[in-house]
Write a structure and sequence with these properties.
Alpha-Beta Plaits; Rossmann fold; four-stranded antiparallel sheet; 15 helices; binds magnesium ion; metal-binding; magnesium; amino-acid biosynthesis; HAD_sf
């Protein structure tokens, strides 16, 4: 074995430095250690509210060159001169290898309470998991932290934490760790009440003077109480005779969900492909596709004859099964395995799609959807989906700055 420090019987020193952070501390410490010809095995450093914790795991001074006591005395002298605290622990070997079964656990809270954090950490421990690392992904619009957990399989951890999340009123996503998380992916979103705040058919219905009738059918369908296909035909039939020029008005009335532009812009910069699939209408999704620079869009098409809606839809029916089928088609066209796709939706007709995707995110969804999806976001900001993918707020803002957005 070339890497002798990985051997468990080789003596090593763990040097921990605490104190007020400022430039030059890391350089200073390693300059002191260099005086003894020591090699670096590992370095970890965090700064929280201006206070530094720097841990350096280094080889033990070689026999004859210097004693451990001399290293200790010199490091302490340097730390004192810098008004820092130092702790030096002798031992053997490197860090213990992380256990098998590794997951990323993202927790979103608004606020994230100490009580929730305690409960989540306790549940991880109960499952046999160990928290190896923790860091903050975002403080805005929610507090998002990520735990790197090992020692427990992803599925049972996800199940245990889903129950805890529900009880605590926080959102938790559990995904397995590994290279696939960094691989290029495809994100496919539902449109109505996901990418946009509206239900498009209700906007049409307002112009047709049948808003209340349509809203009642939509709500029942989204609760899963009505067959989606029947309810779609029933609602579209109510629009019969409506002037097709209303399409332009509806396009202008559509309100994007907060964070939608940030989400799409960031995903595109990272090389993701992004699409929408909607039980609504191509008359609106095609416009969104152009406006937002989406790669894919699919929806039902309202039939128009002689400048008026006929009350029928034409083309491929996009219902619950259709959404899952279209996700698979987009993935094939994008050259992305299904395991590397992310689907986001709020309605019962999104469930097959959410379960077909590698990661299914229920977005401000009805309980029936929330309970069946891999993970749920219950904050009305679409950009929180970025945190579930391990992208930090800092990275989003830095990219915006570079592009002058
Ligand atoms: Mg929806």
């Amino acid at each position: 074995m070339r890497d002798s420090s990985a051997r468990t019987d080789v003596p090593t020193l763990l040097v921990k430095i605490f104190g007020k952070d400022r430039p030059g501390i890391t350089a200073g410490l390693f300059d002191v250690l260099a005086g003894f010809g020591l090699d670096v095995v590992d370095i970890e450093q965090v700064v929280t509210r201006g206070r530094l914790v720097l841990c350096a795991l280094v080889t033990h001074p070689a026999q004859g060159q210097a004693t451990e006591g001399e290293v200790r005395a010199t490091v302490h002298r340097w730390a004192e001169s810098m008004k820092l605290d130092a702790e030096i622990l002798s031992g053997v070997g490197d860090n213990r290898p992380r256990a098998e079964g590794r997951s990323h656990v993202t927790v979103l809270g608004h606020p994230l309470t100490a009580r929730s954090t305690s409960a989540i950490a306790a549940r991880i421990a109960d499952c046999g998991g160990n928290i190896d690392r923790v860091f903050r992904l975002a403080k805005y619009p929610v507090t998002a932290v990520e735990f790197a957990v090992s020692g427990v399989a992803t599925e049972p951890l996800r199940t245990a934490l889903a129950a805890e999340a529900h009880q605590r009123g926080v959102d938790i996503a559990v995904v397995s760790a590994g290279l696939h998380r960094r691989a290029q992916r495809l994100v496919v979103m539902d449109v109505d009440s996901t990418l946009i705040q509206d239900e498009v058919i209700e906007l049409f219905a307002a112009h047709a003077g049948c808003a209340e009738k349509v809203a009642a059918v939509t709500a029942a369908a989204m609760r899963g109480e009505l067959d989606f296909e029947q309810s779609l035909h029933a609602r579209v039939a109510l629009l019969k005779g409506l002037d097709a020029r209303v399409v332009d008005k509806v396009r202008q009335e559509v309100r994007l969900t907060p964070g939608a532009r940030t989400l799409i812009r960031t995903l595109k910069r990272l090389g993701y492909q992004v699409g929408v699939v909607s039980g609504g209408f191509t008359q609106v999704t095609d416009d969104l596709r152009v406006r937002l620079g989406l790669d894919f869009a699919a929806a039902n098409t309202l039939e128009v004859v002689d400048g008026r809606l006929t009350g029928r839809v034409v083309g491929e029916l996009v219902d619950r099964a259709g959404k899952a089928r279209i996700l698979a088609r987009f993935a094939a066209e994008a050259g992305v395995p299904l395991a590397q796709t992310v689907a986001v939706g709020d309605g019962a007709n999104d469930l097959d799609m959410l379960n077909t995707a590698g990661l299914g995110v229920a977005f401000n969804a009805k309980p029936v959807v929330r309970e069946a999806a891999h993970t749920a976001v219950n904050f009305p900001f679409l950009d929180t989906v970025l945190y579930l993918l391990g992208i930090t707020r800092e990275e989003v803002e830095a990219a915006d700055l570079v592009d002058g957005a």
